[in-house]
Amino acid sequence: MKQNDNLSIIICHCEGALCDDNTLSNIKSVYKESADIFDYPALCTETGLKDVPGSLSEEKPRGVVVAGCSKVYDDAFLTSLANKMGIARDSLFPINIGTADIQSLKDKSDAIVKQIQKGYRAASFIPGFDKKTIPMNQTVLVLGGGIAGMSAARELDERGYRIILLEKESEPGGMLNLAKTKTDHTPSYHYPPLPKGIKVYTNSSLTSLAGSVGSFRAKVKSPGGEIEITCGAVVIATGRWKGRNSGFPGDVFQQDPGMCKASDLVDRVAALPRKKETRRIAILLDYKVEETKASAEMAFHMALGLQKDPKNQVFIFSRETRVSAKSLEILFDEVQDAGVVIVKYEDTLNFNKDSSHNERTEIIYTDTLLQQPMKLLCDLIGISLSGISPEADPGMADLTGINLDTLGQFQDNNVHLFPGKTNRPGIFTAGACTGRDYIPDIITDAKATALAVHTLLAGKTMEIELSSVTVDEDKCILCLTCIRSCPFHAMIIDTEKDVAACLPEVCQKCGSCAGECPIKAITLPAYSDNVILSQID
Hints:
By secondary structure, this protein is an alpha/beta fold. The protein has four domains: about 5-130, NAD(P)-binding Rossmann-like Domain (Rossmann fold), CATH 3.40.50; about 140-240 and about 390-460, FAD/NAD(P)-binding domain; about 250-385, FAD/NAD(P)-binding domain (3-Layer(bba) Sandwich); about 465-535, Alpha-Beta Plaits (2-Layer Sandwich), CATH 3.30.70.20. The strands form seven sheets. A seven-stranded mixed β-sheet has the order 13-19-14-15-16-17-18. A five-stranded parallel β-sheet has the order 8-7-6-12-20, with helices on one face.
């Protein structure tokens, strides 16, 4: 269909509940020369939406005012309506005529007409938007060969994508490799090997990432030299960062031989001298950060193994006991039946080393149940590093432009924890780098992330509405404010014109760049000053 310069008005009167025939007649008389007007009894229903294409004129309107109940503000509804009409989503301007302020009036006809007029004024300032289609590269680059990376790679391989997996170690596996030599204090998981169709580079790491959604360009350092990879999407599954373990002043594990990393606890207990009295062994969780079910599982298995020795009395310290999985509930019962003491604490933990206590270390804590300070002398304390340093790799965040949250993990600004969603379209995350450690949860999370990648790439092309921000080239002084402020990396430098420019396939139309531009050189066309001011009475 061709596009004309007229506006259209679509009214959903909800079987006459929102506006009657007289009101519709008044609206049509006001705009009979300037707009095509269409009314529907139930536009917000699936059946009503199907009637739209056959009811509109043969030419596409430049803009459309959509009046109805609060449903008109639903983005999914507006997107469906725009697709039915063959126009851009931002060409629609919604007006709610079902508000209590309007519907409670005895003569609501005039109020509805005024609302339509305001919507018409706003729509008149919105330019027509074209669309473009970009190809989506069907290769997916997976960074990290642990359980999350392998699960995502396997899921995407089954859907026909070309998968390239980078692993910095000599073989994939991650936490699974630690469980190969199972003892009575470590959980065991079995995972099938990767399909042969997946290309795996071991001892390799990402050195740079350029491009945007659908067409990323990655450079990889490998034993065979530098490799260049083009891909449509990237999955970051790099696990937790092992660069440092912060949280204690100085190196506490060297300062106090009565403390050690939880992973070393079993070996350290075996090296303790045999005494007549019972040895008190503490496993400490949640020291700085509340940990996940994975830490609880580790502590339960370790405690069961240590408690078998009649000379050991094991204590598990945690702020919350996480057992929200059937296998963990069973394990928790086994731990209690074995005589392990579960201690719930709150506030800050303190430690006291006193030679009068035969070199034991004293834990000073507030008992959650008793609500009073308590002390426990321990022969050895194993501290979970997950409760001290939960960060993802900050170097990976810098390379890919992904934001980190206050804990140093991926998933910043993603309160709903949508599968793998990041601040950069086309880049996804999964696994321990997002704060998950419990292997069953990691597998589920990675598969959900893979499905999100599939949703993006499945069509092999992506249709983009060209309603993203525009830059006035005469005003732009290339101060780089927009480039620094854009959380999605949508703003770039047009090197030919020496001005800022926007990548429409990346822009999320948040308006940050327009709001931050010091000389007002950037405009979001669907929400320009004129559009906003038109709504002020």
